[in-house]
Amino acid sequence: MAPTTPDGPAPAPDGTPALSVEELSKRFGSGGDAVRAVDDVSFSVERGSVVGLLGPNGAGKTTLIKSVLGTVIPDEGTVRVLGRDAADGRRATYANVDAMLEGARNDYWRLTVRENLRYFATVGGVAPDSVADRHDRLLDRLDLAEKADTPVRELSRGMKQKMSLASVLAGGAKLVFLDEPTLGLDVEGSRTLRRELRRLAEEDDLTVVVSSHDMRVIEDVCDRVIVMSAGAVVADDSVERLLGAVDDYRVRVASEELSPATIDDLRGRFDVVDADAGADPPTVEVRTDGDAAYDLFDALRAADVTLDRVDTVEPSLEDVFVRLTGAGAGGTSGSEPGDEDGAPGTGRRRATVVGDDGGAR
Ligand SMILES: Nc1ncnc2c1ncn2[C@@H]1O[C@H](COP(=O)(O)OP(=O)(O)OP(=O)(O)O)[C@@H](O)[C@H]1O
After folding, report:
1. Which Pfam family name is an example for this entry (predicted)?
2. Which of 24, 27, 54, 62 to mutate to test the pocket of ligand 1 (most atoms within 8 A of CB)?
3. CA-based diameter of the chain, in Å?
4. How far is Cα 138 from Cα 224, in angstroms, rounded to an integer?
5. Among protein residues, the one whose CA lies closest to atom 12 of ligand 1
6. Which domain holds residue 202?
């Protein structure tokens, strides 16, 4: 048992992880029909960090989250929240944890925004007056201050979404799980929320575990990503290192002068992964490391092809995810066609290195 003080549990010593999961397993059903939803999972999450939890449908994410929240009782393993074994003191443990599942939370639509925050603070065991400043700050940061005295039912969908997040944070939980936090938000709303999540983690010592199929959310806000597949953790690393592990860089060139014969010739000499001689202008995409890219430019120059456009195509988190889990696009929604900062419909990241004038940059 954790030591207690007259005011309740002693604060966790510095360096204690916000969450520590050890050898956690949960099975549903029995015999041949049994499903190992979570299978011997271990990891810990540092305080003040934002961690992404990814996995295709059925990977075990929800079961894992619910095991931490205490709504699913694991078969084996331990969960510690701020050093406290969840099985030892459920009330004290769960005062520190809260969650928004499936992009929403049951806010009280007849109550105003501020009344909801006060209500959820009370439910979290906190006197609402003692956290009034925190509520003001949350409302400010999430652009809800003007709506503080508006009943929730009168808010737009995006604002209701932000309200859900504010109410999860209203009670002062130190560890929060957010499942699809940007669902229903427009581009600007999603950007605000991503920025504020990072700020809350950095300034308020909040630890966040985010589960989302939107890889931009994960890339933007997470220090680290845990990827689950079939109940097990298949990767646990920083976004940067996960991206670095996928050695799949490509160059895509476009030119009016790219004839079918030239494309055929390139196929014999390079790893051409995509070509469209009928496009306007025609394009060819080559898997390449740095040297092969120069060889490609030399070959095009020798064939008297002036480039209209060159894009480098870098692996995205979506590519990493697909490679690790074998999940197709059905497992994640990824970037939608026409996304502001993704390659159309592929989830890959493109950067233009030669503009329309054909000049090298
Ligand atoms: N109450 C339950 N009874 C029986 N099987 C269950 C139950 N809850 C989950 N499962 C099974 O456990 C496995 C993991 O499910 P879980 O909901 O944890 O996955 P997930 O990663 O959250 O998926 P999604 O992204 O679709 O929400 C699945 O095969 C699911 O069918």
Report:
1. ABC_tran
2. 62
3. 83
4. 25
5. 37
6. 18-27+38-243
Per the structure block, which two tokens stand in for 284?
């060819």
Burial of 296 (0-12, 13-18, 19+ CB in 10 A): buried
- Distance CA(77)–CA(26), nearest Å, equals 9
| Ligand 1 geometric centre to CA of 63 (Å) | 6
Nearest protein CA to atom 13 of ligand 1, as residue: 37
Rounded distance between C-alpha atoms, residue 28 and residue 74, angstroms: 10
pLDDT per residue as tens digits for the range 231-271 = 999 999 998 888 877 777 889 999 999 999 999 999 999 99
Between CA 86 and CA 80 the distance in angstroms is 6
Quote the pTM value.
0.78
Would you mind telling me the total number of residues written for the chain in this entry?
361
Ligand 1 centre and the CA of 197: distance in Å? 27
Q: How far is the CA of 167 from the centre of ligand 1 (A)?
A: 26
Identify whether residues 99 and 43 lie together within a single domain.
yes
Whether the predicted interface score ipTM is above 0.85:
yes
pLDDT for res 240: 86
Residue 321 lies in a domain: no
Whether residues 80 and 197 fall in one domain: yes
Q: Mean pLDDT over residues 125-150, rounded?
A: 90
Total of domains in the chain: 2
Q: Residue 253 falls within a domain, yes or no?
A: yes
Local confidence band at 344 (pLDDT 50, 70, 90 cut-offs): very low
> Do 268 and 199 fall within a single domain?
no
Report d(CA 225, CA 238) in Å as an integer.
6
Residues 236 and 288 in one domain: no
- Which residues are 112's β-sheet partners? 151
CB of 61 within 6 A of ligand 1: the answer is yes
Nearest Cα residue to atom 31 of ligand 1: 58
The CA radius of gyration of the chain, in Å to the nearest whole number, is 25
Q: How far is the CA of 28 from the centre of ligand 1 (A)?
A: 9
| Residue at a domain's end among 243, 259, 274 | 243
- 27: CA distance to ligand 1 center in Å? 10
